[in-house]
UniProtKB/TrEMBL annotation:
Belongs to the PanD family. Heterooctamer of four alpha and four beta subunits. It is found in: Cytoplasm. Catalyzes the pyruvoyl-dependent decarboxylation of aspartate to produce beta-alanine. The keyword Cytoplasm applies. This is Aspartate 1-decarboxylase. Binds 1 pyruvoyl group covalently per subunit. Pathway: Cofactor biosynthesis; (R)-pantothenate biosynthesis; beta-alanine from L-aspartate: step 1/1. Substrate binds at T57, G73, P74, A75. Keywords: Autocatalytic cleavage, Cytoplasm, Decarboxylase, Lyase, Pantothenate biosynthesis, Pyruvate, Schiff base, Zymogen. It comes from Algoriphagus pacificus. The active site is at S25 (schiff-base intermediate with substrate), Y58 (proton donor). Its cofactor is pyruvate.
Length: 115
């Protein structure tokens, strides 16, 4: 049996853009993606600390070093520029593997840059 466990978390980044008329997704700075072990098209959950909204979408690679975190499509209605969010990914694994698993957690600064 497999269970879902925390794989990666980008803790408390700010939304830099919200593009309603775009195919749905979240665009994330490639530096943040690399640090959090996220890949393009990976499913993520976004938890909005500012307003309590939660949503699932997939990742699009953003410009490296830009600090970009942009909600696209319908997700753009779930946050405003400046809102603080947590971006979470999960992985399925066997229970014994999960007991040994260490998730990747990153804590960017208030400009969405790696510390």
């Amino acid at each position: 049996m497999q269970i879902q466990v925390l794989k990666s978390k980008i803790h408390r980044v700010k939304i830099t853009q919200a593009e309603l008329h775009y195919v749905g997704s979240v665009t994330i700075d490639e530096d943040l993606m690399d640090a959090a072990n996220l890949i393009e098209n990976e499913k993520v959950q976004i938890v909005n600390v500012s307003n309590g909204e939660r949503l699932e979408t997939y990742v699009i690679t953003g410009e490296r070093g830009s600090g970009q975190v942009c909600l696209n499509g319908p997700a753009a209605r779930k946050a405003q520029v400046g809102d603080v969010v947590i971006i979470i990914s999960y992985a399925g694994m066997e229970i014994e593997e999960a007991k040994k698993h260490k998730p990747v957690l990153i804590f960017p600064d208030d400009r969405n840059k790696l510390i």
